[in-house]
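Inverse folding, one chain.
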């Protein structure tokens, strides 16, 4: 079976050109001048449209147990929603909870995902209990399981938290086996004090979730993580869901010094704010409770994050997709913001929301593709199988229509959520056609994807490090 995507404008980090893309079975087999390739079993006309590598969302949490409930998207619903939005690979987080074995946590995650995914998927491993067994398991995961990155938490004491000694040991292990350490950088013990004091004062509304997680405690933790990584002989360090200007400055300083320090941000920090969303009247703001929290619009965070995307101090945009319904899930925190499950859903909208940055002239077309696909592939050991329109790469292709319009709403999205964090947003651009390993998942507004098409991807070590 061959498939030809003809006459499209192919966009990659190194440039933009008009070409025909020929696919045989699951792979891209040729890029030719327009019109040179004549026959194919299926022909897709991409004239006037962009042809980009399928989106890679390097940070999702399908079915994550959290705060007495679980994220509302299963691997089946969440990966279908991702496909609708032009994302053809997710990297989810398998979870070791404190007191559990890493291998049990990983097996549980494979059981949730296997046979259910519409698109390809890989795992990072969350370490919620760094001890001798967990450190040994890190080698096995890297060498045998295709899991080459590990997330640690400086936040959430009693749940996922690691102290500085545990973090240092895990970093030293990663330095030895070549893995990447991903860090949730917020000072959890200090936040817990602020949360308790706020509740004592009767400050229970959702906005206090943000107020008790001040930017300074993200900046402090980011700085500490960078120092610990330096002590661990410059272990590669990746700061997840970076939201604060001060934390960005710490990352930029380390990068300017030539350190192996990287960071991602998420669309919610580029578009949404403490006052306008988390501070919505009544309990409404619970929809936007996530950690790190949305930041104040009266400070420069949003503007600085867009700049960081331009300067490459922020390398990647992921969603941190962790949806909870308002009814019955977010509502667990009525009268006590600390009981609101943390997370925002957005896996369906990342490609569009970042394209809006191109329309608004905040980032270039090439940078759009780099931050949503190519760099995640390189950073997390999937390149060049993923993240490129290139001969030999998987035929994960999105045709994107710059003349289309995307209206975001709970009424039309495909995520298993009873609200949208971006309700009413209108994007000047639209996902037109989505292809995963040569199979057309979305075309002419019709969805053809199926659970079980998506395969687990064993990852190599990062090819992004110097
Ligand atoms: O609020 C968030 N981010 N929930 C998901 C878990 C995490 O910390 O990434
Ligand atoms: Zn986190
Ligand atoms: Zn710099
Ligand atoms: Zn997360």
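Residues assigned per position:
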């Amino acid at each position: 079976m061959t498939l030809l995507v003809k006459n499209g404008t192919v966009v990659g980090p190194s440039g933009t050109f008009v070409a025909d893309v020929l696919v045989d079975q699951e792979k891209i087999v040729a890029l030719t001048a327009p019109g040179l390739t004549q026959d194919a079993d299926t022909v897709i006309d991409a004239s006037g449209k962009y042809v980009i590598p399928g989106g890679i969302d390097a940070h999702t949490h399908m079915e994550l147990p959290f705060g007495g409930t679980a994220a509302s998207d299963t691997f089946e619903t969440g990966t279908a929603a991702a496909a609708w939005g032009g994302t053809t690979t997710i990297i989810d987080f398998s979870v070791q909870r404190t007191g559990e074995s890493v291998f049990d946590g990983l097996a549980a995650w494979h059981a949730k995902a296997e046979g259910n995914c519409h698109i390809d998927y890989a795992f990072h491993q969350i370490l919620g209990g760094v001890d001798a067994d967990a450190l040994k398991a890190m080698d096995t995961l890297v060498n045998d399981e295709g899991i080459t990155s590990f997330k640690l938490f400086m936040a959430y004491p009693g749940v996922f938290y690691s102290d500085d000694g545990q973090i240092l040991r895990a970093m030293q292990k990663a330095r030895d086996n070549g893995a990447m350490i991903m860090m949730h950088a917020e000072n959890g013990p200090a936040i817990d004090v602020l949360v308790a004091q706020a509740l004592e004062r009767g400050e229970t509304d959702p906005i206090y979730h943000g107020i008790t997680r001040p930017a300074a405690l993200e900046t402090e933790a980011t700085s500490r993580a960078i120092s610990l990584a330096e002590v661990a002989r410059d272990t590669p360090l990746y700061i997840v869901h970076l939201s604060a200007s001060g934390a960005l400055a710490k990352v930029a300083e380390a990068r300017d010094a030539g350190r192996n320090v990287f960071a991602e941000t998420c669309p919610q920090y580029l578009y949404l704010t403490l006052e306008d969303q988390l501070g919505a009247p009544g309990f409404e703001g619970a929809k936007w409770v996530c950690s790190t929290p949305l930041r104040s619009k009266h400070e420069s965070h949003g503007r600085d994050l867009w700049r960081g995307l331009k300067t490459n101090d922020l390398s990647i945009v992921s969603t941190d997709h962790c949806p909870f319904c308002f009814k019955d899930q977010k509502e667990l925190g009525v009268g006590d913001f600390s009981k609101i499950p943390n997370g925002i859903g957005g896996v369906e909208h990342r490609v569009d929301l970042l394209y809006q940055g191109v329309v608004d002239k905040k980032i270039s077309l090439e940078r759009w593709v780099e931050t949503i696909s190519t760099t995640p592939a390189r950073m997390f050991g999937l390149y060049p199988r993923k993240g490129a329109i290139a001969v030999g790469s998987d035929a994960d292709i999105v045709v994107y229509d710059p003349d289309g319009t995307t209206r975001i709403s709970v009424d039309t999205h495909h995520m298993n959520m009873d609200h949208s964090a971006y309700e009413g947003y209108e994007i000047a651009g639209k996902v037109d056609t989505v292809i995963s390993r040569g199979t057309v998942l979305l075309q002419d507004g019709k969805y053809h994807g199926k659970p079980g098409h998506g395969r687990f991807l064993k990852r190599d070590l990062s090819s992004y490090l110097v």
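Residues 215-231 form the longest helix (17 residues). The radius of gyration is 21 Å.
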